[in-house]
């Protein structure tokens, strides 16, 4: 007789598509339980594996599973109402969340659009930039400058600003708007002491090329979009904060809007509350998501400066003053209530909007960085490893060859960790609540899995 897990895996196979996988790929494990930073996985042979979730459910479950504060927020709101349309109506969770986001974000960001996923928040940001340029009498500005190596989502406008060659959406290039792509910036290393190490000459070459490209296409560009400091799904690539300062200068010089995609980097993941703060700059538009609800429900937000919103109100262009987007589940009360509770946990503000001298996220992410640097250090000695990177709560083992996803995942599970490699990377972005022991377990599992699959 088949086990419950084996039956579930069999029923899944050929029925459900999984992310970036063929229909025949199926799932590797079934989840039986999730608590704190750990998952209880069941395999097709009836085996059970308690593992540390190095993925934090794709970087979102920062407070861990079954968090009492988030559970309580969900229960309290669902007893009132779980959803109501946002067209013509409002409610306390949405208003409160918007107020908190504005209080946390870089000071110039004053207005909030609540979206139902990160990709949609990027779509809205791009729409807003186009409407802004039209309102300013520049309707011909309909393209964007983006960085090679970037990833901004799976919907069509978002796909168009992803890397057009090495990204995962190259198959859809004929259907996407043709954008302008600057070279990928040079790589950087963030040291224990807080310094940024990179090749100065390479950065100067990149800057000259990017300034020249922007000047050449300025008349057709509406804005610039970038993931600040860390390109996530494009390869967990770390670049110097100075790049952001250059992009800010280019945007100002050519009357472009600078869009910061903080969906993966926001809320402390890189060691700053928002990754743009590494560079000391403020974007015109910022997208956030993933950790916003602590991984409980899908919710994202786009924030913009007052000048952009005002342009839509008073502009003389052909586009209407309304921001032309309105998801059915926009401002979902249940998600907003949980997000407010999640921000309380991050900041320790208790809803008062005032952070303690050192907010919980700062303590947690600093511990993650120390633990990941320590636990991943042995991987540097493996012949299969090209480099090890750590930034805040992100730890990466880069291999010399493409990662064998199924083999590496299984080997890591046997050692007590859930990881999902991609490209040539075995990486983790774990829950902020991971203990020192769990961080050591993650690092040892990743190193051991690489050694098992590829040899020392």
Short characterization:
Substrate binds at residues 58, 151, 290, 326, 420. The chain is of the alpha/beta class and 456 residues long. The chain has helices spanning 4-12, 56-59, 68-78, 92-104, 118-135, 156-160, 200-217, 242-253, 306-314, 333-347, 360-376, 405-414, 436-454; strands at 30-35, 38-42, 48-53, 109-115, 143-147, 180-182, 189-190, 196-197, 221-226, 230-231, 237-238, 257-261, 285-288, 300-305, 385-391, 394-399, 417-418, 425-428.
Structure description:
- By secondary structure, the protein is of the alpha/beta class.
- It folds into 2 domains: 8-26 and 45-65 and 360-455, Aspartate Aminotransferase, domain 1 (Alpha-Beta Complex), CATH 3.90.1150.10; 81-347, Type I PLP-dependent aspartate aminotransferase-like (Major domain) (Aspartate Aminotransferase, domain 2), CATH 3.40.640.
- It contains 13 helices and 18 strands.
- The chain has helices spanning 4-12, 56-59, 68-78, 92-104, 118-135, 156-160, 200-217, 242-253, 306-314, 333-347, 360-376, 405-414, 436-454; strands at residues 30-35, 38-42, 48-53, 109-115, 143-147, 180-182, 189-190, 196-197, 221-226, 230-231, 237-238, 257-261, 285-288, 300-305, 385-391, 394-399, 417-418, 425-428.
- The strands form 5 sheets. A 7-stranded mixed sheet has the order 4-14-13-12-9-5-6, with helices on both faces. A 4-stranded mixed sheet has the order 1-2-3-17.
- A hairpin with a 5-residue loop joins strand 7 and strand 8.
- Helix 5 (118-135) packs across helix 9 (306-314) and helix 11 runs parallel beside helix 13.
- The chain is globular, with a radius of gyration of 22 Å.
- The protein starts with a helix and ends with a helix.
- The mean pLDDT is 94.
């Amino acid at each position: 007789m088949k086990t419950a897990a084996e039956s579930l895996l069999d029923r899944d196979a050929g029925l459900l598509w999984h992310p970036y996988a063929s229909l025949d790929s199926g799932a590797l494990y079934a989840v039986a339980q999730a608590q704190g930073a750990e998952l209880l996985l069941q395999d097709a042979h009836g085996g059970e594996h308690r593992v540390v979730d190095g993925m934090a459910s794709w970087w979102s479950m920062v407070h861990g599973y079954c968090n009492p504060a988030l559970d309580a927020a969900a229960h309290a709101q669902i007893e009132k109402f779980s959803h109501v349309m946002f067209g013509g109506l409002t409610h306390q969770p949405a208003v409160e969340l918007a107020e908190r986001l504005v209080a946390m974000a870089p000071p110039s960001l004053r207005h909030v659009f609540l979206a139902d996923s990160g990709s949609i928040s990027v779509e809205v940001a791009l729409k807003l930039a186009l409407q802004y340029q039209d309102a300013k009498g520049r309707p011909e500005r309909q393209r964007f400058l983006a960085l090679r190596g970037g990833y901004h989502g799976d919907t069509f406008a978002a796909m168009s600003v992803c890397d057009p060659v090495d990204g995962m959406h190259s198959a859809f290039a004929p259907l996407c708007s043709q954008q302008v792509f600057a070279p990928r910036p040079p790589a950087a290393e963030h040291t224990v002491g807080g310094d940024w190490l990179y090749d100065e000459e390479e950065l100067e070459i990149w800057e000259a090329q990017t300034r020249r490209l922007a000047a050449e296409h300025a008349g057709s560009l509406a804005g610039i979009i970038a993931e600040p400091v860390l390109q996530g799904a494009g390869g967990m690539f770390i670049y110097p904060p100075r790049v952001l300062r250059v992009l800010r200068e280019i945007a100002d010089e050519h009357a472009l809007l600078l869009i910061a995609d903080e969906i993966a980097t926001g809320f402390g993941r890189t060691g700053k509350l928002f990754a743009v703060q590494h560079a000391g700059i403020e974007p015109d538009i910022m997208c956030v998501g993933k950790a916003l609800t602590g991984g409980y429900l899908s919710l994202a937000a786009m924030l913009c400066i007052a000048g952009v919103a005002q342009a839509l109100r008073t502009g003389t262009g052909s586009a209407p003053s309304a921001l032309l987007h309105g998801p059915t589940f926009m401002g979902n009360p249940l998600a907003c209530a949980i997000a407010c509770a999640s921000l309380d946990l991050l900041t320790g503000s208790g809803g008062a909007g005032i952070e303690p001298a050192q907010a919980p996220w700062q303590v947690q992410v600093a511990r993650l960085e120390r633990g990941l640097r320590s636990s991943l250090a042995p991987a540097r000695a493996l012949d299969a490893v090209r480099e090890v990177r750590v930034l805040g709560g992100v730890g990466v083992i880069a291999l010399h060859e493409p990662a064998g996803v199924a083999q590496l995942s299984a080997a890591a599970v046997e050692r007590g960790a859930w990881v999902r490699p991609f490209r040539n990377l075995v990486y983790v972005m774990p829950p902020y609540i991971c203990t020192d022991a769990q961080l050591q377990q993650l690092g040892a599992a990743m190193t051991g899995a690489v050694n098992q699959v590829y040899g020392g």
